[in-house]
Design goal:
Layout lengths: L4 H5 L17 H5 L36 E3 L2 H9 L6 E4 L13 E2 L8 H6 L4 E5 L3 H9 L4 E4 L4 H14 L3 H22 L6 E7 L8 E4 L4 H8 L3 E2 L8 E4 L1 H7 L3 E5 L6 H9 L8 H4 L3 E4 L11 H12 L6
Parallel strand pairs: 1-2, 1-4, 2-3, 4-5, 6-8, 6-10, 10-11
Antiparallel strand pairs: 6-7, 7-9
């Protein structure tokens, strides 16, 4: 299951492993797979965060862009969530949420942006990845303004939300949304405070039906931050990088209390059962022995967008079901 979940970890640089069987992943290995943007794009359950234009929005500033192209699903969600959906004219090949994006033009993605099509849409703002240096150069030559996106921790979601909201003329809506999301996460933190924190292996990519090619969250990044807020301790919190490629030997050595697999694609009950069962080969791990292997197949857990509050709550309910009865 080689997907771009790996890209969540690092967009522009390689992924370094840690001792005990992990290894360095070259940059082209991380970003050069065909399904690179897949995990950002899976269909997910409806969110409680409204992505419809907010009622009684003030008129747009004269300088606000009217023809936005977004190549980043997380930012696309933000644009719609703050009420800038009508200003968006095109999105990436992998945008799936909110439903309104299905009616918009597709202009490629991280690895294959369609510059000609982008320019034909006469955009007055293009949202690009920081790693898309060639695209940035071409847009600069064409005198098309850009918003350069990069993500790291959960706090960067707030920063991006505020900056993009102000850039597109929806500063107040973005600030209001940010505070609502933060309050939701704070509520989760308060609920799990004082309770046991399972040492959690957070897997965001591996081969299908096998414990090979396992990519896990390191101690940096929004996935690590979400699990921490949800009342779990990352078994690789000491590894100061966004992603770790871990062997089964390394996982055995870390002895997680819980295993949390985050998938962007929905799974059937039969597939879920089979994917969970592969962990039985590591039956000495407390997580496996105590039936604490969890697969969450919702896109909200892998996209650093306006639905992160819902994602934190979902992870908390998974790790601490007794606290949410």
């Amino acid at each position: 299951m080689k997907t771009i979940t790996t890209l969540i970890a690092l967009l522009a640089i390689g992924v370094s492993g840690v001792g005990g069987g992990s290894r360095v992943i070259p940059h082209h290995r991380v970003n050069g797979v065909g399904r690179v943007d897949l995990l950002f794009s899976a269909t997910s359950a409806p969110s409680v965060v409204s992505t419809s234009p907010l009622p009684q929005s003030p008129p747009l500033p004269r300088t606000a862009p009217r023809r936005i192209v977004s190549l980043i699903p997380a930012v696309t969600e933000m644009l719609f969530a703050v009420g800038a959906g009508p200003q968006v004219v095109a999105v990436s090949s992998f945008d799936r949420y909110p439903p309104e994006v299905t009616k918009l033009e597709r202009v490629g993605a991280l690895l294959d942006p369609d510059v000609e099509r982008i320019l034909s849409l006469r955009p007055d703002l293009v949202v690009v990845y920081a790693s898309q240096s060639d695209l940035q150069t071409q847009l600069k030559r064409a005198r098309v303004p850009t918003y350069v996106y990069s993500h790291a921790g959960l706090a960067d979601v707030w920063t991006t939300l505020q900056k993009i909201g102000e850039r597109v003329g929806h500063k107040q809506e973005a600030n209001d949304l940010m505070w609502r999301i933060q309050r939701r996460i704070d509520s989760v933190r308060q609920r799990v405070a004082g309770h046991g924190r399972p040492r959690t292996l957070i897997v965001f990519d591996r081969e299908s039906l096998a414990l090979r090619g396992i990519y896990a969250s390191g101690g940096i990044g929004f996935i690590d931050d979400m699990v921490n807020a949800a009342g779990g301790d990352n078994v690789f919190s000491d590894v100061r990088q966004a992603a770790v490629q871990a062997t089964t030997e390394l996982i055995l050595a870390r002895r997680p209390d819980a295993i949390l697999e985050l998938r962007g694609d929905p799974m059937s009950p039969a597939i879920r059962a089979k994917e969970t069962a592969v962990w039985q080969s590591l039956s000495s791990i407390p997580a496996v022995r105590n039936n604490r292997v969890y697969l969450i197949d919702q896109q909200i857990t892998v996209v650093p967008g306006p639905r992160v509050g819902e994602a934190v709550e979902l992870i908390a309910k998974t790790l601490h079901p007794d606290l949410f009865k």
